[in-house]
Each structure stands twice: as C-alpha cells, then as structure tokens.
What does this fold into?
Amino acid sequence: MRTLSLVLILFSATLASAQIQDFVCVFSADGIPYRPDKGHTFAAVVRVETHEGKPARAVEVASISWLPATMKVRALALKPEQGRNVPLDETLRVYADKGHKLCMWGPYRVQPEFFELFKTRVAQVEQTFGYKAAALTSPRDICDCARAVEEMVESRRRLIGVNGYGAAASSVVVRKFSPWLIEPDQSHAWVEPLMGLDEYPLVRRSYGDYTTRGDQFKASLRRN
It folds into this structure.
C-alpha cells in the first residue's frame, strides 16, 4: 500500500507539472489564377503538453477540411453529395502538389472551450453533414468548405459570392474566431513542427492581414 501511495503521489506531481495549451491554425488554398472552385478553407486545433525540461508534444489534433468524397469540387452542382473530412496532412499535400498558394494564420493560442467546441464541430460534420459547393440556400447540414468551418461559431449563413472563397473566406474565419484567441497579435511558430507544418510551403499571414473579395477578383485576372 505504501508503494502504491508513493506511485500515485509521483503521478499526481507529474500531472501538476504539465502545462496544457490549445492552439488554432486557419488555412487557405488558392489556385493561380484564382477560381472559386479551386479555393479551399480549412482549419485545425492542437492541444500541446509541455513539461519543464522536456520537449513539447502535440497530444491531440483535430481538423476540418470539408471536401467532396470524390475530391472534385463541382461549383454548379444542384444536389448535395457525400462529403469527406480530409486529414490535415493529406489536404496540405494535395494542394501543395497542385501548385496552389497555401496560406496560414496562426498558430494562435485559444481558450480551452474553443478546443472542445471545435472537436464537437468535427464530429457533427463527419457524422451528419453532406457536401455542396456554394451551399447558400441549402439546409444547415449541407456545407461547402468555408461554411463547415465558420458556421461552428455563427450559424447565420452568409453570402460568400464568386470571389469570396479560398483566402477571402479564411480571412472571415479568423475574424469570427477572434473572441477565443489569446493575444492574437502573437503567433506561436514553435507549434508548427509539432503538427508537421514545417514540411509544407506555407505563406504565414499575420492577424489583420486579410484577403478581400476584391483581392480575389484581381487574382482571377492574373495569368500566372
């Protein structure tokens, strides 16, 4: 009994010395030139555990990258189809291989309740949602990539428009996540390797550095 008590005391001390922090990253992928059916918005949260004198480690990662199961976005489709929450590393790899411009806001530290809210949204999307591009008039459980992320904190369905996808939609997501961000002016680059993000050609965007519909319209006119 004395040995067991000592083990429990040491275990409790170890837990007490651990520090848990939660972070969010918001991503966009855009074709060059911009096309709405080539734009993608996705996001991820990570729970990081740190111990004094030990390397930090990611203990849990959750992401929303809502795409058709076929991976082919049909902008003019009239009916919803089966969707798939594509894993974060697969999403980044697919769009990087296609030569898309990949942007990231964060990692930003977030309130613990946001991490739980995000995980609840992941389960909701994966278990009950269908996919449809440009889902403005669809039921709330039918989403495109942008709405799958942003409507976790605001259920009102907004008009995104032809030039509102990709980085423009991700910019809106960052603003909508703002109430849960802790010191949003500070990103935490040390978290990126814990998520494997250092392996991808990401353009780091700072808080307040947003893309507008006008920016996307101009990008649609570019030849390269």
Notes: The helical segments are 2-17, 88-97, 112-128, 145-150, 167-177, 192-195, 213-220.
